[in-house]
Amino acid sequence: ALLYNNKGEYKKAEILLKDYLKHVPEDGATTFTYALFLSERQRYDESMEYLLKAARLSPDNPRIFYNVAMMYDFRNDKKQAVNYLNSAIKIDPENSDYYLALLNLHVKYQQINESKTLAKEILSKFPDIRQKEDILAILNQ
């Protein structure tokens, strides 16, 4: 399926993914792959359905929770986006990407107090983070 997708043969890729999931519906990794495939095709409602299913099937995969959060953000549902990013952080508290994504959401939604609190936490937890200057700018606003 991935080879077909890479070659631009999307119908063949989708047939294989759907067939596989029909036979192995509890495969969280492939469910996630299919969700991403759907998102790439701009079939966002279907993608969200499969992302949420993948999160249930693979509750220890922070990347799935990150993608669910981004889909909720795309839908302007900041509460759910924040909740899912917090879940990703709980699963993988050493990955600065999830903290930065959460910080970006707080900034986007003009949540000043949350932004500053999280910025301090990020700088404390990741003192050598590459985005240090941007994070300091948030603190100095």
TrEMBL record:
UniProt cross-references to InterPro entries, sorted A to Z = TPR_rpt (IPR019734), Ycf3/AcsC/BcsC/TPR_MFPF (IPR051685)
Q: Which UniProt keywords apply?
A: Repeat, TPR repeat
Any Pfam family the entry gives = TPR_8
Looking at the keywords, is Translocase present? no
**In which ranges do the TPR repeats occur?**
62-95
Q: Mind telling me which SMART domains this protein's record contains?
A: TPR
Q: Which domain of life is it from?
A: Bacteria
Record keywords: Glycoprotein included? no
PANTHER family (UniProt xref): CELLULOSE SYNTHASE OPERON PROTEIN C, TPR REPEAT-CONTAINING PROTEIN MJ0263
Q: What is this protein called?
A: Tetratricopeptide repeat protein
- Supply the source organism for this entry: Marinifilum caeruleilacunae
